[in-house]
Each structure stands twice: as structure tokens, then as C-alpha cells.
Write a structure and sequence with these properties.
Helix content: 40-55%
Shape: elongated
Strand content: 5-15%
Radius of gyration: 21 Å
Number of helices: 12
Distance between the termini: 21 Å
Number of domains: 2
Oligomer: single chain
Strand order of the largest sheet: 6-3-4-5-8-7
Largest sheet: 6 strands, mixed
């Protein structure tokens, strides 16, 4: 087998794997998106040529420029609907983030529950991933949760549609998330690649991506896309930030103790036993229902059939 043919076969296999992974989330991909998420470094033209050749037609089908596993054409309509749902949720997110920006220790806010661009279900809540200043993670979360509660935006078991989920914070001292990875953690990989910043102060997003080079190593064609129209302008008033920190920064320990006391028993029972619930002064990851293992099993089941 020639080197060229070997590379073509690698790209074909990688295309099927990418389409199969996003199929879990009912998200068909454009040729550009497939190329961006591919595990093999290549040109976009290579992906387009393979897709248009028909060689993958038994596995991958196409509708209106989007590609999906054969027999799954209905998810094209799902993607179109979710674009409208996501657009409405973006607007609601920006409203709360316009308040959050006055918390001077917030460095970045991103929407995190989108695997695929604009892929939010109508009934879903809005997961925010927040990066804070060092030694201010507990105080920041306390204020964010308080504001969300006052505005009746905290999710409950009965009502979580369009609510704000504040379950993942990291400080500037813990930007590298590789310690939270599972073995072959495709979900965390794509979760990070699909983070959509809505507030970015001091180029924190660029620093975050630089600290997670393992993403670029796994997705060599991937690059970040920023949408200015969907971002809240950063508050860069140094005097204001310093004054607030002088007045309230000393409450960090009190905010920590208060929130630890309020933690539900089911979270306390599993905290820091694995990477699902991680609680310390640099990372607050409260994903009691972390489904990464489940998604990985579904993904492996899908590709096993090809």
C-alpha cells in the first residue's frame, strides 16, 4: 500500500469516527466541521474529495451540505431547530453575563453544553464554564449563584429549561484540564473545543487554549472561532476591580466555608473521589451526573459496527 493510499484510508476512518461521535448528540456536520474535528492532519480539500467521491456512501449520507450516519437523515431537521433554540439561549446568557462582568474576579465565561455549534436543546439549561482570578474562586461562585437565585435563574429538578447551571469553575492557576480527563476522553476533548466564550477579559481564552495544547494535538486541524457579536464587552476598570477586591476579597474563606456547608450530601459523598466531582481552591467541578463514560460506550458501540 502506498503512503498516499494509507493516508487516504486514515482520513476515511477518521471521518467515520467524527460523524459517529457527533451522531450521539444528533448533530450532522458540514465538510468543514468534519475536517476541523478530524484526528488526522490534512487539507480541507482532502475531506471534501473523499466525501464527494461516494466511497463512504454505505456509512455516511449527505443532506443539504451536512453529513450523518446512513439512516439518520432526520437529525438534519434537529440541527436546524436547535440553531433557533441556541440563539434564544445566547440572548438570555448575555443578559446575566452583563451582570457577572461587574464581579471583578471573573476572567472568562463560556457556554459549555454545546457539542457542535449552536447545538442546544429547547428544554436544556445553560451550562456556564467560568475562569476566575486565583484565590477568588469561592467568592466568585458565591456571588454568581446569589445573582442567579435572585433572578430565579437557578435550575431545579422540576424546572431547568433556560436556567443557568453554575457547576464548573476553575481559577487562573488551574487552566490545564488534562488532569480531569478520562482514558480516551472524547467528550471532554470536544467539550473544550466547542466552548463558546461570551465574556473574555485579558485574553483569558487564549491563555486557556495555550494551557490545553493536548486539544490541538488530538485535533490537529482545529482552531478557535470567536464571535464578537455574541460577547459581552470586558470590564477593564482597574480602579474599580482593585477597590472591590480590597473591600470584599478577604471574604474568600468565609464564602468557601458557607458553600461547603450547603453542599448536598450526594455531592459530599463523591467529592474528589474521581474526576466527576472535584472540589478545591482551584477547581469546582460539580458534575454529579457526569455522562462521559456513557457517551464513550455509545461511541464505541457505533464505530464497532463499521
Amino acid at each position: 500500500m502506498s503512503i498516499e493510499q494509507k493516508k487516504i484510508n486514515e482520513i476515511k476512518e477518521a471521518i467515520i469516527k467524527v460523524v459517529a461521535f457527533f451522531d450521539i448528540f444528533d448533530f450532522p456536520l458540514t465538510a468543514f466541521e468534519i475536517w476541523k474535528y478530524l484526528s488526522v492532519q490534512c487539507d480541507l480539500a482532502d475531506v471534501q474529495e473523499i466525501l464527494s467521491s461516494g466511497e463512504l456512501n454505505k456509512v455516511v449520507s449527505c443532506k443539504n451540505g451536512t453529513y450523518f450516519l446512513s439512516g439518520r437523515g432526520g437529525i438534519y431537521v434537529t440541527r436546524m431547530k436547535r440553531y433557533n433554540y441556541a440563539n434564544a439561549k445566547f440572548k438570555k446568557t448575555l443578559r446575566i453575563v452583563r451582570l457577572f462582568k461587574y464581579i471583578p474576579w471573573i476572567k472568562m465565561v463560556a457556554i459549555g453544553n454545546m457539542i457542535g455549534a449552536n447545538n442546544l436543546k429547547q428544554e436544556s439549561d445553560i451550562d456556564l464554564f467560568i475562569i476566575t482570578a486565583s484565590q477568588r474562586i469561592w467568592l466568585t461562585r458565591f456571588i454568581c449563584a446569589g445573582l442567579a437565585a435572585l433572578l430565579k435563574l437557578r435550575p431545579t429538578a422540576e424546572n431547568f429549561r433556560d436556567k443557568i447551571c453554575l457547576s464548573f469553575f476553575v481559577s487562573e492557576g488551574a487552566l490545564d484540564l488534562s488532569s480531569l480527563k478520562l482514558s480516551d476522553d472524547k467528550y471532554l476533548l470536544h467539550w473544550l473545543a466547542d466552548l463558546t466564550p461570551v465574556y473574555d477579559r485579558g485574553n483569558t481564552y487564549d491563555k486557556f487554549i495555550a494551557a490545553n495544547q493536548w486539544v490541538k494535538e488530538s485535533l490537529p486541524n482545529w482552531f478557535e472561532i470567536k464571535t464578537a457579536s455574541r460577547q459581552v464587552k470586558a470590564l477593564d476598570n482597574v480602579v474599580y476591580s482593585d477597590l472591590v477586591d480590597v473591600l470584599f476579597g478577604s471574604l474568600e474563606k468565609s464564602a468557601k466555608n458557607f458553600q461547603l456547608r450547603l453542599l448536598p450530601q450526594n455531592i459530599k459523598a463523591v467529592m474528589n473521589k474521581d474526576t466527576n466531582v472535584v472540589i478545591n481552591d482551584d477547581v469546582l467541578k460539580l458534575h454529579i451526573n457526569d455522562r462521559r463514560e456513557e457517551y464513550n460506550k455509545i461511541y464505541l458501540d457505533r464505530i464497532f459496527n463499521f
